[in-house]
């Protein structure tokens, strides 16, 4: 236990140490001061000519329309690629075209940065689909979220303007100057550690008993790097980062876990730089860090303590020199309970969804942590871009509550928060949690919905709740035990699209509204938003909104399971 805690402390320190310089660099990349070397700037100008865009800035509506149109084109291309993969090259194992309902769900999943998978990657996707389809979307969907965040932050920083930036410029800079260099570095390190990267087909091995075994392999390392850095999470292999071909050593496990939260954490520092008020980033970072550590502090002891069912079955779960003890079901012995608890918390704090252990086998208390993490809108660091602009919804609500307490018109960064911003923040913060509860209810009270639930009772309800919590919040991890049917694929697709783009549009609308406002000088009655008090208030608002909404559902799933 002590060793596990020390690993978590080291992880947190390294994460913060790396995110600060990266955040500073990212703020520079998105600023007007950024000037790339001529040999790098030339391709950018070529890209802008190719898409027919200049460098003139856009208001929030134009920015949103461009972003949505861009993703619509990629959605069509990805769907066609999946359906036609059986007739396309780079398919050494003869994978057939993906079924229509799975293609539809997978397209929505990767376009929305979710990477929910109703299939086993190594048995369903050709190498062309993995590289030109899924890996490309890992880059593009992440870059879109990062571009939108940059636009929203400009709305907080600017005064009396309508424009938030140019979508094409922000997209290109996100891809070429941030995601691509980081992915090349991480990919090279992963290959050096033994993560597979080959275009050869599945290997055939002969066992000691004389039987043959087919071993899946492929161009995995390149996809693993961007799936973690872009908070995508979809696994090249069905068992995701628990597979040695994806995650072979303790070092790769640490590196991949760092990558999950690296860019989201860096974007908090980026925010402080871009608004030229670095202290304003500290309450946001403190709130995120506190909720992250609370999640680990609940999940780790829950798994180390195990459950009464394990004790009653006669399993020895006592920790000792020769074994880790606790609930090791569906956990890799290479990583143990502490690293699984850390990963499960980090991956559901972000919209990542990759796993290095089976979440379905967590204890009832431990399994509740990822459900709650996702239900907050994954704002505890969150996805690249989407996490921080999701946190802004709660920030605006917190400012509104503070204004009520001190009897003043609420202000944030010197700008008055009025009815329009409050309504948009409420939509951004409450729409997705409401959708999660509605879709979960539909899935457990209709005949078509029940066909997807394989496990009866409270745990089956938890699996359904997790499925729509994950898809609606663009996470992608799963409890397992919730199967793919025409109903679940269709309803999940709706959740994927709405869960991504309703908050995105609401965030851009807030940015556009704030960009037009003047800054009022602070006065004696101004509520400070750069201190510990405001950080505590943000945590309280998240708990009172998302926490109270999810509690009845938890009572029907994990809480009932824990008590029984």
Distance between the termini: 27 Å
Structural class call reads: mainly alpha
The main sheet comes to: 2 strands, antiparallel
Report the average pLDDT across residues.
92
Q: What oligomeric state best describes the polypeptide chains here?
A: single chain
Count of helical segments?
20
- Within the largest sheet, what's the order of strands? 1-2
Radius of gyration: 23 Å
Element order: H for helix, E for strand: HHEHHHHEHEEHHHHHHHEEHHHHHH
Query: Residue ranges: pLDDT <50 for 5 or more in a row?
Result: none
Number of strands: 6
In short:
This protein is mainly alpha-helical and 564 residues long. The protein is built from 20 helices and six strands.
Q: Which key terms come to mind for this protein?
A:
564 residues, mainly alpha, two-stranded antiparallel sheet, 63% helix
Description:
The chain has one domain. Strand 5 and strand 6 form a beta hairpin. The longest helix has 31 residues. It is globular and about 75 Å long. The strands form three sheets. A two-stranded antiparallel sheet has the order 1-2. Strands 3-4 form a two-stranded antiparallel sheet. Strands 5-6 form a two-stranded antiparallel sheet. The mean pLDDT is 92. With 564 residues, it is mainly alpha-helical. The chain contains 20 helices and six strands.
Describe the secondary-structure layout.
Layout: H1 2-29, H2 38-50, E1 58-59, H3 60-84, H4 100-111, H5 121-124, H6 127-157, E2 163-165, H7 167-192, E3 203-206, E4 212-215, H8 221-229, H9 250-274, H10 281-305, H11 308-312, H12 336-349, H13 364-375, H14 386-406, E5 411-412, E6 415-416, H15 419-445, H16 447-450, H17 457-472, H18 486-515, H19 532-556, H20 558-563
Antiparallel strand pairs: 1-2, 3-4, 5-6
Helix pairs in contact: 1-9, 1-12, 3-4, 3-6, 3-18, 4-18, 6-7, 6-8, 6-18, 7-8, 8-9, 9-10, 9-12, 10-12, 10-13, 10-19, 12-13, 13-17, 14-15, 14-19, 15-17, 15-18, 15-19, 17-18
